[in-house]
Design goal:
With about 180 residues, this protein is an alpha/beta fold. The protein has a single domain, classed as Ribonuclease Inhibitor (Leucine-rich repeat, LRR (right-handed beta-alpha superhelix), Alpha-Beta Horseshoe), CATH 3.80.10.10. The chain is built from five helices and nine strands, in the order αββββαβαββααββ. The strands form two sheets. Strands 1-2-3-4-5-6-7 form a seven-stranded mixed β-sheet. A two-stranded antiparallel sheet has the order 8-9.
Length: about 180
């Protein structure tokens, strides 16, 4: 089915007459092979594109104020160059795809300072060494990663791993005075 027809059917079923009234679109299980142009929906906040056949992402036509994006259960190989403008995202589900390149993926998502819930499991990146610590370090606002709460102990551990210099300074400060420790 053509993407435009799918969108029109979805909007019509919900009784929405104006594009400016669309704040959520459910385009799951529609056999879509690409992300359709949704730039006309300026108030779009939630987008469900899960359970389709999407291979490549070109989401530049998506509103930068999108807060929830569901892309799980597709055939996406990379998110590079597609999501960095979505800085208001709070929920991003990308599990069960074919995403490779942990560094490139985290570089793409680095500007998402409000991202609280993300899933990447069942992707090749989730099997890379140090995956969970690296994601927690790169996305410090995450509260849930792969359906598992990010605990304070994990945050401390990633801080120790990725910010060793700052960790040493914090450990050497006691009651407002700096203590020296043998190296």
């Amino acid at each position: 089915m053509e993407a435009t027809k799918v969108i029109e059917d979805s909007v019509q079923k919900r009784g929405i007459r104006r594009d400016c009234d669309v704040c959520e679109l459910r385009l799951a299980t529609k056999k879509l092979t690409s992300v359709p142009d949704l730039s006309r929906f300026r108030l779009l906040r939630k987008l469900r594109l899960n359970n389709n056949k999407i291979r490549e992402l070109s989401c530049h036509s998506l509103n930068c104020c999108l807060t929830e994006l569901y892309l799980h259960n597709n055939n996406i190989k990379s998110v590079s160059g597609a999501l960095s403008h979505l800085t208001c995202l709070q929920i991003l589900f990308l599990h069960n795809n074919c995403i490779r390149g942990l560094e490139d993926t985290m570089y793409e998502l680095r500007r998402m300072q409000q991202l609280q819930n993300a899933t990447f499991f069942l992707n090749p990146i989730s099997h890379e060494l140090g995956y969970r610590n690296h994601v927690i370090h790169c996305l410090p606002s995450l509260q849930t990663l792969d359906r598992k709460e990010v605990k304070p102990a994990e945050r401390r551990k990633t801080f120790q791993i990725y910010r060793q210099d700052r960790h040493r300074v914090l450990q050497s400060v006691a009651f407002g005075r700096r203590q020296s420790f043998p190296q």
